[in-house]
User: Fold these one by one.
Assistant:
Number 1:
Amino acid sequence: MVEAVARVQTEKLTALYGKFTAVKDVTLGFAANQVHALIGPSGCGKSTFLRTINRMHEMSIGGWITGSVLLDGADIYGPDVSVIQVRRQVGMVFQKPTPFPTKSIYDNVAAGLVLEGGRARAELDEVVERSLRRAALWDEVKDRLRTSAIALSGGQQQRLCLARTIAPEPEVILLDEPTASLDPQGTQRIEELMFELKRDFTIVIVTHNMQQAARVSDTTTFFYLGAMIEHGPTRQMFTTPTNEQTEAYITGRFG
Amino acid sequence: MNRRDRRRFKSNAMVALMIVAVVIAVLPLLFILGSLLVHGASSMSLAFFTRVPVPAGETGGGVVHAIVGTLVIVGIASLIGVPVGIGAGIYCAEYPGSRMAVVTRFLSDVMNGTPSIVVGVFAWTLIVAPSHHYSAVAGSAALAMLMIPMVMRTTEELLKLVPNSLREAALALGYARWRTTLSIMLRTALPGIVTGTLLAVARIAGETAPLLFTALGNQYLSFKPNAPMAALPLVVFSYATGPYEEWHRFAWAAALVLIIVVLVLSVAARLATRQRFGAARG
């Protein structure tokens, strides 16, 4: 399938850990302002693939890639590219909530902003409030912004991490099984948020949960044994997959 | 006896054993504190803290020279030992598999087991012998050498306890590596590192052997780092082995002061690093 201008485009991307190939030769585009789901059984390479998009893969022991990842047409693995700049444009939320335990709720949200420096206090206040509102957390924490972030519930912590990720206004948000450690209510909140957030961001989500992929995403990509098996609009992937393996996985016959 | 009674009996017996173990562990400390108070408290007066010793045979005088000396010697030792120890600890935690880290870790374990008098001899060879005079700095150097491996291993172990997911979260947010290490990893482990460092300071404050042929001791109040200087453990050592009853009482009192200095250090550190949010402490 052809998308006009992909926000994120991988070209023959292969991701390795030392000599082990985790992702093989994936060419794939993600259109802007949509939610893209990556599904597949454990160890299929979908998380590794996700981590190549903000260059976190190279932080893993032995992690390296061949091929390229284009963000708005520019190779993020190019020689003059700053990794830090890439990660500011491509935010990430992890499976386990990771609030900074020594920072308050406010300082957690501001953590990515203060890196740039030179922001007035009032402006910072404004961004923190807006980010918390967008993460649907503001009403729950507005009276205790200066208290510990780890006193929040798991679901609240995950929304806090989401607020922290969107505060510096990235273009793309990567979600690595963001609801895997949450209860159904927390999961629902995050899923609802994705509909809101895709207006401003391009979202790529790795999920083990078929129903979640079907509910929230516009496109779905199925990975198996490090290879991209099938990619297409979510409705088509879940109703009329062209590949047998995709169908078998989606209908729960393996994985 | 049925099964439940047997279990209850076993449980109670084990609890009793643990209580005995705790008592055995704490008793010596209580006895030490008790006898120090009994023998030392009577010699403590204002003069004890403000005066230098008087010639043998006269009464009165104090150990201010040794209190100052201990603070100066331990202070300089900490200025050297803490940054080096924390720096090396960070290195070993950040590059755990590197050959350098493996070697450093092994050597610091060896250092930790080295008798302190050997370190004193080394400092003598290194500083006292070439400069031809005893000095407080030589004592500080010896103490710093003892301190570095302790601080280093504490720092490394506590940094390793910080979940790697926090490092990833910071990096993914656009933090540079150095900033991630300092403002996330080190900051999260800080309360434990401070506590560990203070324990190391307290440990070296009581060391006698490394000072015997480095700082040597001094009958007078001295602030000169390049000259012999008194220290509380040295005063305790020389007074306790001296011939006069008055000296023996002074030794007890000096020992009590040493314990109090260490105690105050530890308590102050605990208060100063009390977690803002009451998170886990090291």
Number 2:
Amino acid sequence: MERSSQPQAGLIKRGSRARGETPAYSKGLRTLSISTVIAMAVSLSLVFFYAPLEAEQGFLQKIFYLHVPLAIVALCGFVLGGLLAIAHLRTRDPRWDYRSYVVIHMSLIFAVGTLITGSIWAKGSWGHWWVWSEPTLVSFLIVFLLYATYQPLRFAIEDPERQARYASVFAITAGAFVPLNFIAVRLSTAYLHPRVLGSTSNLPGSMALTFLVSLAAMSLLFATLCKYELTAKHTRAQVRALRRRLEGQAEARRAPRSAAPSLQHVTAMTAAPPPGGRTTGQR
Amino acid sequence: MIVVTLAELPALPLHTAGKYVAGAYIVLFALVLIYVAIMAIRLSRIERELGELLACAREGELSAGPGERPAGPGERTAAAGAGTQPDPAVPAVCPPGQDDVAQPESTLA
């Protein structure tokens, strides 16, 4: 905990400067939510009533418009988490770590959806829930398992500052692994799994349009859920800071151990020192 | 109007691979639904904690005399000991919230 005092003092300084400018994560949430609902409705309508049936797989191919956007958004989310982690290491601003955590967390949920829908598609198409000889499936599972260790890693580190730093390093390394893994699979010789990117031009116009709308809808859903998560965690941190402020013991009680970022900037901004009291940075 | 529109729409071949397609889309729906349920639980917890904090703040204002700074719930015991009698119906300090109990967020997140 010795090394954490310096960055925390920085947080207080930054928080004092920004007092009254607490970031509003809920800004634009309503518009985003409405856009997502509309986009999802349009996407589902196109999938079931506009896109033609594929010649080989028939109606089963409709899973393509769900499974592939889920996978693309999840993988892009992992990479985005790495980019946000770079911003955190560059600026030491905990808000970037907070965003990186939420994006990776949501990508993990989308990855679960990808694996489940992929298994259902495999069962309908190939007759098996899982095919270990298929590199695309196995590589995605490896990426998923890699990111499944992200939360335990965070939870294993008690010091919030160290937790954020180590998690950022992990997010960057794993984020760099994702595109490398993707390229390696595409360069492999087995082409049992249907190719999507790079062959989109081979799709009929109606199918390509449906796919792009589905991808946009899934991206909007991802963004909306991330924003909900950011807002909820931020609100909870504000309530916690307000409780400490009301109790007059802004730093007497340690926050419970958690895998989530500690959001000290919120505490610093909200929990002004009581008269004659100490600030968190004066520990 | 709706009936006419539905009649114009092409029939879905649900008899062939319908169960797989339905299963896949239900998975997405279930994931979103579970997420919404978790968010509802979180929201109700925040609402409850805010209510507790509001009650604490009101109690702090009541216990402070005219012209005095409203005492925080943590300071209430000292203020009561100095002059006024504490209200036995009110706990000495604000009850600890859910956040103060050791509980990893990852279980809900």
Number 3:
Amino acid sequence: MTKVISNNIRKLRFEHQEMTQQKLADAVSVSRQTIVAIEKGKYSPSLEVAFKISDIFNKPINEVFLYS
Amino acid sequence: MSYRESSIFASLLITIGIWGNYTWGVFNLYQQQLFSTETMYSLLFTAVLYTIFLEVVLQIIVAIYKHKEANDKSDERDKTITMRANSYAYHILVLGCFCVTFYILFPVISQFTFSMPGLAKEYEVMHLIIAFGLLAEVVCSLVKLASYRRGY
């Protein structure tokens, strides 16, 4: 069975005072379209961006991004 | 549609519209037997000037319409998409180089493929190079648009 990368960014945004995609995008220095693509699982970000996103939510990277 | 998609789409429309019009103009002049180096220069300069003018005007309009995203720096996804599109365009340009080289080395090919009576050989080669350059540009834009639509 093929493993795929998924993520909990949408859920985590809502848990963090309903953070907007634009606010998250500004915090990690990417465009809002990139956050949309990451949330939908259409684009896998670089390690740097993945770590930045995890850092913003104060979660370890494996709780934000799942490989299953 | 995001700013980048709109900008690429505008450039694609300009490229297809103006150079399609140039091709149509050359074709019509051939049919009327009015084609010469002078008429070709006239069509070519008109196409180049219109391309520059429309590119500037349309990019300004897109930037005004999508002003919130217009100043955003390109991020890693933009760079990856650009690299992928450029790689496709590069292959087409390499193919173009081979075709033009063969065209020059073996003039007999022109009898069966591409020939523009009334024009010097150099202008035929120039048109081949322009055609491959435009094809590469169109493919580059289409790959970018498809990648942005698909997400990556």
